[in-house]
Amino acid sequence: MSFVKLLSPAKVNLFLRILRKRPDGYHDLQSLVQPVSLFDEISLSVESGEGVRLSSSGREMSSGSDNLAVAACRLYLEAASTRKKISVGVKKNIPLGAGLGGGSSNAAAVLVGLNKILRNFADRDLLRMAASLGADVPFFIRCTSSFVEGAGEKVTVLSDFPLLHYVILFPGKSLSTGEVYDKLELPEQPPEGVDPAFLVERFRDGFPLENGLEDAACGILPDILSFKEIFRSLGASFVLVSGSGSSVFSVFRERGEAEEIYEYLRTSSEFDVFLAQGISGWHFLAD
User: Fold this and answer.
1) I want to staple 94 with a disulfide (CB 3.0 to 4.6 A). Which of 102, 141, 164, 230 is the partner?
2) Which of these is catalytic: 5, 92, 136, 228?
3) Per the confidence metrics, is the pTM higher than 0.90?
4) DSSP 76-116
């Protein structure tokens, strides 16, 4: 039997612009995304036999065929034209339906972890598989600060982008990405795309945060607005909904600034709060 354990990170969208709805129902977008040090733990064991078994602890999650980690296992085996018995363990710390990409990260962790054991594919092959699983999964294959385009399948690594500090607040209520996109109202004149080099340069001097899904998310869950106000009342100037919500984050260049706000909020029973930092690369705990 072969075994690996790895950390499966959350992400934040520092910039998310929705450009248009495509004929296939997906949306073309541009996003600047950074993985952060809020982790699930994924363990994978591979042995002779057949079948995929999932066990989980921590936050409640689906263990059925709709689970992206299970889907990633089956996709990998099909693409490799092989039969194996795979056991997947998930220690779930990332809130679900929070816009933090936990499920997509788990799927990418499975692809990366299985490939570390079985060594069937190059990264470009994993990226193609990832795109068929979900819009955020290709980003997590690279697992570093990136500019994402198309429906999420075009990922450009930003190798010199700074690793920022975050306080992330989850209000305890989840949002469905599909419902948020259904609520989205695009203008008749589509917004212009942004040049990634120009955007990265703007982040060197400030935080030009943007989220084209924020209004739709707040329309479904108005409580988000009050949680943004909590941050602002504590002096956090740069606050945004991550992805399709429902989580809200504040971003800082210095860890001490983030720690100060985190310490004030962490004892609250009204919401979950996390202190995190941008990261780069996968973190394997055992193999």
Assistant:
1) 102
2) 136
3) yes
4) HHHHHT---EEEEEEEE-SPTTSSS-HHHHHHHHHHHHHHH
